[in-house]
Sequence to fold (197 residues):
Amino acid sequence: MSPSLLITLDDESDRDPTLDLAALFGNDHPIEIELGFGKGRYLLDAAQRRSDHNFVGVEVAGKYLRLTLDRARRRGVSNIRFVHGDAREFVEFFVPGESIRALHVYFADPWPKTKHHKRRLLEAEFFEEALRILEPAGRMWIATDHDEYYEAILEALKPSADGFNLVEAIWDGVTTNYEDKFVRRGSAIHRRVLQKR
Fold:
């Protein structure tokens, strides 16, 4: 029987909720995480192209999780696992330190209303968590079309600036559904690739 592609999280028990990622995949391949994968276009493409890496996708929207999980099963993708839950909580409570090769955050909800800014994922505290989970020289890939959010991201990065290097990297793989939509509208796409020092 093939392993389950869905990770069930349990932070209510007395045991340590930190995941044993090697056990989840049955190997010690490098791990990449995409937070908020939407319809999963990037995640599925990356997993299929890079079979020597393992991928974890985290999505709070159940309908997108089911859609992408079904696509992964139909394509026979075995190096991917899915989490239904909050991205921030997943990173903080379930991901071991220095265990992740790459963290992907593409077109996170910008929460444009000022009263909702506290809901944004890419805040200063999150960048500290990213530094904690990334292995040495691990990378964080970020993209957004929202100009104001991009400026806020750059501001949120300042307290962690000593922990990251900005690197030039070729964006590989397919574009996300959101990116295609924003490019059709004529929106500028802002990207950053950060490498842990």
Remarks:
- The first strand starts at residue 6 and ends at 7.
- The two ends are 41 Å apart (CA to CA).
- The longest helix spans residues 62-75.
